[in-house]
Amino acid sequence: MKTAEQEKITQAQETCRIPKQLALFERASKVIPGGIYGHIAPLMSIPGVFPYYTDRAKGCHYWDVDGNEYIDYMCAFGPMVLGYHHPKVDEAAMKQAALADCTNHPGPVMVELAEYMVDMVSSADWVLLVKNGNDATSYATKVARAHTGRKKIVLCQGHYHGVAAWCTGPCHAGIVPEDHTNIIRIPWNDLDAFRKVVAENKGQIAGFMATPYHHPTFIDQVMPSEGYWKGIRETCDKEGIVLMVDDVRSGFRLNQRGSDAHFGFKADLICFGKAMGNCYPISACAGREEFRIAASKVFHTGSYWFAAVAMAASLACLKEMRDGGVVEKMNRMGKMLGDGLKDAARSHGLEVIITGPPAIPYMRFANETDLFRMQFFCAEVVKRGSFLHPHHNWFMCAAHEEADIRQTLGHADDAFKAVKEKFGS
Amino acid sequence: MKTAEQEKITQAQETCRIPKQLALFERASKVIPGGIYGHIAPLMSIPGVFPYYTDRAKGCHYWDVDGNEYIDYMCAFGPMVLGYHHPKVDEAAMKQAALADCTNHPGPVMVELAEYMVDMVSSADWVLLVKNGNDATSYATKVARAHTGRKKIVLCQGHYHGVAAWCTGPCHAGIVPEDHTNIIRIPWNDLDAFRKVVAENKGQIAGFMATPYHHPTFIDQVMPSEGYWKGIRETCDKEGIVLMVDDVRSGFRLNQRGSDAHFGFKADLICFGKAMGNCYPISACAGREEFRIAASKVFHTGSYWFAAVAMAASLACLKEMRDGGVVEKMNRMGKMLGDGLKDAARSHGLEVIITGPPAIPYMRFANETDLFRMQFFCAEVVKRGSFLHPHHNWFMCAAHEEADIRQTLGHADDAFKAVKEKFGS
Q: How many structural domains comprise chain A?
């Protein structure tokens, strides 16, 4: 006979929507630190509701290992921009794969991709192709130091540039204070703070790196203030500071020429990743003519960086993005989603705040200080078949159609109703 | 009418074996810093002879863009271990690709791969999967610091662990002295030197990282002295120092259980890459039980790290490696090549020195202090259809057959003859 505790477990398993995935996760926890690590770790999601393992994906939909289907608003946390299994991208990748991928030398497609990016991207006179976004941001800091002969790098508080020690917060395990000897952090959107550190570190600052707008986790996104980037650009020019834009998360979702173009300025060095390859592993640092010599002096390489398949995929992705009105569509769909969510919330007597670009929205409840409402809301939406994250910005893609948004708004309507019932306001 | 100079250029173009690739490189040099960067940069090869761009590859053969065919002894600088387009690996990758690659979550294959590695690799009680080899080595240093609460990392002079600033030599552009505040470099194979820095930095050293044997560029490889690793292991145990082995280059070519197993000791943390995925982009840090908690505390993530295709490829690659006598074959073929090269040299009155494991050999001329003979020799071999590198270790793969080696030894015989004629000895 079962004990009360065993009965509870059996009941939980019966009502669980992800039993196969929990079994997989239990196996994983024995052979992988934390079971699933990094930005997709379970502690970053809603335990027992959020899926853990993907079975298959197509367009803006995917299915978890337990057969649950989702309309995807995280898009692999950014890399998916045209839809999973986009025919043109996959065809280009497969065509290249049939020839060669990672060999002793790059494929000719490296030249074609670099030429295409130089033509397409506002601040690109040259481009260096890498794997991780963090490979690009780390490279940029080296180029800035090589170019200026200076050491210090200014970053904005709460901006994420990857997991390399130089850009990881001091609170994280394994990071030591000396990792940040030459790093100065200032508040986002604070031109005076920048001018102050520049004055205090006259002739010592190699570069300033920031994301084109502020996209933290857990809190609202903040667009650049009027005149912010113009002021940064002017100060950098005046003081010989290299202006580096980390466009890894936002690149090609605000503007196909890069997010600096979107905000009306030119970066010296600009880093891309995610959207540039529609899920194929590729990132890049592009830069202006002035920095070409320093860029070619820095030794930067990796075992898989010259692999041709991801480059072929990226070239096809960028071509589609340029020709297909992709940025416009993502922002239109994002606006439809955002407006719809606000309306749906209002119809239940609730208010939600949505910040950031329509293609990369962040939502929270107006009256909330913790994330309980948002977690509950996302759980209810996820159960119904749309994947929304409670504390990370979402990503739109060009495969989202009005029918998808309408379906998600239906899920959201039910979820807002449940929030109202549970929380009262 | 042509000037003498123009005539010379025309003549050079006519006799050039890589005209299409030089034209591509000229285009590249306008849009990519240095045209081709990193470890495959032209300055790392023999200009005008070495191919620049791969058209296609199959087994241990590949063809450059000008249609020249090569038997490959660089194997993509390591990642190719079973042969390009290995049917089992590609089939596993394609099967996974048809389902999903990079999505919001890993695929179930992440669990299977981690379980397989824990079972196969001597020092693996857990494994964390990443992209670049350098992602793994950087992670290992963080785990060591998180585990010990100490800051300093001891490395060996001339050991390559990637391009992150902490492990890049101070002579490189963009590297500042503060990048190495907590790094101590000691000579390879010098147990006394290690014991000395440990005594001088009592209680301050988080970890020691080294490659399992010394595989520098430009000079001979050096295997560990008798008792070296045993002594390192004992000192680390006594002083609570984390022993990290960077097996990215050598992993799975010396021993399918890891190179620490090959040399009769156990690493605390061991990093793999290259051979583990047969050219698909994947690397890993594996570790022992004791370090699991620290390993799970370190925040380490990347946009493409959970992509399922490379994991499926890696699982198929490791299975093939374990079942197929792959390590034995690579070393047997490497020995046949090495013995044959020595004999061929001797038959022309020359002497070559070959160091390192047979599957990862490094060759030089015994009487040479510069690399002129070696460069000339490799150029002559490359022209005849075998790809050998003049100053980097070579890599054998399981697709090398005796017929390939015999063909290459024929190329080498001609090349040694040419060396003898040109240099006299």
A: 2
Q: What is the largest CA-CA distance in chain B?
A: 79
Of A189, A147, A130, give the one whose Cα is nearest residue B132: A130
**Given phi > 0 = left and psi -120 to 50 = alpha, else beta, which region is B64?**
beta
Domain identity same for A210 and A307: yes
Using a CB–CB cutoff of 8 Å, tell me whether B133 touches chain A.
yes
**Do both B309 and B369 map to the same domain?**
no
Whichever domain contains B407, its CATH number is 3.90.1150.10
Q: Per-residue pLDDT averaged across A66-70, rounded?
A: 97
**Domain end point (choices A323, A344, A369):** A323
Among B85, B55, B102, B108, residue whose Cα is nearest residue A86: B102
E-assigned strand segments in B67-144: 69-72, 126-130
DSSP type of residue B290: G
* Interface with A, mutate which of B102, B145, B317 (most A CBs under 10 A): B102
Cβ neighbours for B11, distance < 8 A, ≥ 6 positions apart: none
Residues B330, B319 share a domain:
no
B128 touches chain A (CB under 8 A): yes
Whether B301 contacts chain A with CB within 8 A: yes
The Cα A337–Cα B56 span in angstroms is: 45
Smallest CA-to-CA distance from A96 within A252, A306, A326, A323 is with A306
User: Residue B310 sits in a domain of what CATH number?
Assistant: 3.40.640.10
Query: Tokens 């005046």 identify what position?
Result: A238
Nearest to B213 by CA among B370, B400, B362, B399: B362
Question: Residue B350 and residue B342: Cα distance in Å, rounded?
Answer: 9
Same domain for A75 and A114, yes or no, is: no
Q: Which two tokens stand for residue B228?
A: 């070296």
Among A38-52, A220-234, B53-67, the minimum mean pLDDT is found in A38-52
Q: What does DSSP say about strands B283-287 and B269-272: parallel, antiparallel, or unpaired?
A: antiparallel
Contacts of B155 (CB under 8 A, 6+ apart): B161, B167, B183, B184, B185, B186, B208, B209, B210
User: Residues A73, A108: one domain?
Assistant: no
A218 and chain B: CB distance < 8 Å anywhere? no
Question: Which residues 6+ apart lie within 8 Å of A339 measured at CB?
Answer: none
B61: contact with A, CB 8 A cutoff:
no
A303 → closest Cβ in B37, B166, B274: B274
CA-based nearest residue to A187, from A225, A150, A152: A225
Candidate from B24, B55, B128 with C-beta closest to A111: B24
Residues of chain A in contact with residue B168, where contact means CB-CB under 8 angstroms, are 299
B31/A115 touch (CB, cutoff 8 Å), yes or no: yes
From A291, A323, A355, give the residue that closes a domain.
A323
Same domain, A344 and A272: no
| Contact state of A53 with B107 under an 8 Å Cβ cutoff | yes
Backbone torsion region of residue A334, taken as left when φ is above 0, otherwise alpha when ψ lies between -120 and 50, otherwise beta = alpha
pLDDT along chain B (425 residues), means of 10: 62 78 96 92 81 97 98 98 98 98 98 98 98 98 98 98 95 96 98 98 98 96 98 98 98 97 98 98 98 96 97 98 92 98 98 98 95 95 97 97 98 98 95
A40 vs B76: CB contact, 8 Å cut-off? no
Residue B105 corresponds to which tokens in the numbers above? Answer: 């979550």
Q: Are A138 and B164 within 8 A, CB to CB?
A: yes
With 0-12 CB in 10 A as exposed, 13-18 as middle and 19+ as buried, what is B404? buried
Q: Are B76 and B94 found together in one domain?
A: no
Residue A287: exposure state from Cβ atoms within 10 A (0-12, 13-18, ≥19): buried
A56/B114 CB distance under 8 A: no
Give the structural domain span for A319.
Answer: 87-323
